[in-house]
Amino acid sequence: MIWNSETARQTADHLLQIKAIKLQPQQAFTWASGWRSPIYCDNRLALSHPPVRTFLRQQLAAAIRSRYPQPQLIAGVATGAIAIAALVAEELELPMVYVRPEAKKHGRQNQIEGELPASGTRTVVVEDLISTGGSSLRAVEALRQAGAEVSGMAGIFTYAFDVAKTNFTQQHCSLVTLCDYPALLQRAVETERIDENALQTLQEWRKKPDSWSPA
After folding, report:
1. What is the average pLDDT across 134-145?
2. How far apart are CA 150 and CA 209, in angstroms?
3. Which of 91, 60, 85 is nearest to 175 (CA)?
4. What structural domains and CATH numbers belong to the chain?
C-alpha cells in the first residue's frame, strides 16, 4: 500500500529522473532470479543525489510516524537498505540495526548487526525495494526470533506482485511504500516517458513476471 498519491508521484519522478528505475520494454533486463523484465530498479543510486536522498529520508520518516506510532527501533535489510535505514533512523532520532540474509559463519555469527534492545522493542523494518517479499520477510522473521516486536515495514518501491501481497499477509506484516508499480507507470505515461504500446508491455509483464519474455 502506498502512503499517499502525491508522495508516490514525486517518488516516481525522482527515481525516473536519476535512472534508479529504468523502463526498457523492447530490451529486457535479466534479474538475478533469471526473470526477464522490462524494468530494472536500483534505488541505491538515490544515495548519490542529495536532493533525492533527502526527499526519501523525509518521506519514509513521515510515513513511519503516520503508520507505525511510537517506533523504538529502525532495522534495515542488508545490503540495499542499510544506508537508507540509517538516514531514516537519524531523521527519527532512533537507534538502528541491520539484518543480514543469514548469520555470519565467523566471529560472533550475528545475523542482526547492531544492538538490539530489550525484548518487545517496537521495530520498523526499512527496505529499498520489494519484489516477491522473500528476503524482506526473512529479515522480519529474524527480528521476531530475536525478540523484537515488528510493527511493519516501510519501503521506497514495490512491484506490487500478488505473491508479495500473499506473503506479507501470511507473515502478518503490514507494508507501506512511497511508490508502487501502478503509480510509477501512471506517472511515466503522464510525463511521456512511455507510450501506450510500452505501457501495455509493462502491464503484461507484471501479470506473469516469472514467464514473461519480450516480443
Report:
1. 95
2. 29
3. 60
4. 5-207 (3.40.50.2020)
